[in-house]
Amino acid sequence: MKKTIVVLFSGLLALIACAQNANPPEAVSKAFSDKFGTVKGLKWDQEDDEWEAEFKMNGTEMSASFDQSGTWLETETEIKEKDLPENIMNAVNAQFEGWEIEEAEKIETPDFKGYELAIEQDENEKEILVSEDGNITIKKEEREDEEDDDE
């Protein structure tokens, strides 16, 4: 029985490793190269029909998503709170006074340019989208006690 479990577990690990080192279709690779050129530390991951590239450009962690045909879907760039534009900070502080920014990313899609912020206060967490002109949309909202109910 132990031997069977070890073999199954090893096979599962091999599948996961292969999936993380997957090579995208040529159309996706070309679209990535056209948009970003040559980058360091490029790692591809596939989820359903979407390909995501994780990489560093000019020392900054980024990711970009493409569909199977190579159509660009989204770019995310990690940023520090101190690097958020003043108008974005003012909009967030006005609507979420006392909340702390835990994570910030600059987001660009064909239809949106702005920021995605993970914010929290006490036991409340939210993910918000803030457009470049400061309009805020709540993307996801959780309370810590709601998370405990799921366990």
Features:
single chain; 151 residues; eight-stranded antiparallel beta sheet; 4 helices; 8 strands
Compute the separation of the termini in Å: 29 Å
C-alpha geometry: elongated
How many distinct domains? 1
CATH architecture verdict:
Roll
Helix content: 25-40%
Strand share of the residues? 35-45%
Structural class: alpha+beta
Average of per-residue pLDDT values: 86
Number of strands: 8
Provide the gyration radius in Å: 19 Å
For the largest beta-sheet, the strand count, sense and barrel status come to: 8 strands, antiparallel
CATH class: Alpha Beta
Order of helices and strands: HHEEEEHEEEEH
Residue stretches low in confidence (pLDDT < 50, at least 5 long) are 1-19
CATH topology (level 3) name: Nuclear Transport Factor 2, Chain: A
Structure annotation, total helices: 4
Q: Largest sheet, order of strands side by side?
A: 1-2-3-4-5-6-7-8
